[in-house]
Amino acid sequence: MILAVMRTVVCLCMWLSVHRVSGTYVPQEMNRTLQNLRQHYKISNQDLFDGQHVFPREPLRGKMESNMLFMGGVLEAYEKLFGHMLRQLPTPSPQLAISKDKAGTSTAGPSASGDVRSNLMKVLQKIKELKRHRYQEQVKLLQGLQNLKHIEMDNLKIQSKALWELPWIYEEASSLADNVMRRKRRRRQTRTKTRPGV
């Protein structure tokens, strides 16, 4: 019995060392910061585990380009959410902000609001760094899509110009869709040719 348990533990350890464990991209410091923030923004377990995600997970099963675009949008939404959460916090009093001793610790005692603000700022900075280093192209595309939402639909000038631009837009959209379909067909044909026995 003990030998079987030891064998299972050794196998589990080897499996964990070979396979990537989910969450390895999240630095330990960020994990601790998130744990502290969860204590401040605590809700009931019933609300937390109600089966409704804030961000849908279905698009993550699609193509890499779609996943990158979706993740860029999620990071953008998180940046806005954290900005909103920061604005909701009470503004720090000038006395607390100024009253630091030489060691760098607050003499007025730790401020819960200040800690939350600091933690939100740390996580927000990590999100911005990730966007800046890995999702620049996707963020630019999302910003372009956001601009499309602000087109004045009831403006006569906009309506007239849109009618003039439509042939070019229609041609580009059709060509793009056609190129995607051709690429899919070529991949499918390549896969069938490379399979043995086909």
Description:
By secondary structure, this protein is mostly helical. The protein contains eight helices and no strands. α4 (64-88) packs antiparallel against α6 (112-134) and α4 (64-88) crosses α7 (136-149). It has helices at residues 2-18, 28-40, 45-48, 64-88, 94-98, 112-134, 136-149, 156-194.
Structural features:
mainly alpha
Summarize the helices and strands and which ones pair or pack.
Layout: H1 2-18, H2 28-40, H3 45-48, H4 64-88, H5 94-98, H6 112-134, H7 136-149, H8 156-194
Helix pairs in contact: 2-6, 4-6, 4-7
Provide a quick synopsis of the model.
This protein has 198 residues and is mainly α. It is built from 8 helices and no strands.
Please indicate the percent range of residues in DSSP E strands (runs of 2 or more).
under 5%
Give a count of the beta strands, DSSP E runs of length 2 or more: 0
CA(first)-CA(last) distance: 50 Å
In round numbers, the mean pLDDT is 78
For this entry, what is the oligomeric state of its chains? Answer: single chain
* Tally of separate helices: 8
Which range best describes the helical content: under 10%, 10-25%, 25-40%, 40-55%, 55-70% or over 70%? over 70%
| Largest sheet composition | none
The topology string of helices and strands comes to HHHHHHHH
Uncertain segments are 17-21, 97-110
What would you call the shape?
Answer: flat
> What does the radius of gyration come to?
26 Å
